[in-house]
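The records we work with from here on pair a chain with its fold. These numbers are not coordinates but entries in a learned vocabulary of local backbone shapes. To see the layout at work, look at the sequence and tokens printed below.

. . .
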Amino acid sequence: MNNHIMIGYDYQLFNVQGLKIPLYAPIDGHYIIVGGSGSGKSTTVLYWLYKCRKYNLKLYIADFKASKEFKGISDNFAEFEDCYDLIKKYYEDFLTTPEGGDRKINILLIDEIAGLLTHFSMTKEGKQKADEIRNIMSSILMLGRSRKCFIWLSMQRYTASIFPSSSGSADNFHVCVGLGRMTVDGRKGLFAGEHFEGEEELLFGMGKGIVLIDGQPLRSLICSQLNGDLSKSLK
């Protein structure tokens, strides 16, 4: 499928009938993935990035907690408080990117965005930076598609406070993934009451969850994993 990547398989069909039916999502879209520690978020994102390698892609990675999984994949990489400068750099590229035309897809991956914003919000000066990051994300989420500039967010728990309350930015994600057992509030915020038949019978755990792709019904998802050789090929 043109401009699509395989993000995993239909977990329900695999669990019940043993069928490996792949699920595809557009690469030119905003992604958000939520899951607790050990849910397989990083492995899943690495697999997506591996699937993206055939595209003309420019990748920025803000790894706030220095998890090391993403280090070495891109020259545009930052950890800890340096993530602020990287996000600003991406935004400057976004502002100078014209609409339309054939050009690279620019992706800003922010790992543990909630932790990054919470850290900055602890001081007056940092709070200004946190608000600036929120406004940058809102702008890109609403206007980025015409410039092929997208945001991928990864976090342990979804919270609407990540975005300005009046922006409606959370509604602008094209691919929403929840791995493992989500909190009631987190699931409601991310999937807005969506449900599919047989969901209660599935056991969600590492690499297993639900996905909402823009224009499609809610589905179960089991994520593919990278082996060691594939992980190295990204670096």
Remarks:
- The beta strands are 4-9, 22-26, 31-34, 57-63, 76-79, 105-111, 149-155, 175-179, 208-213, 219-222.
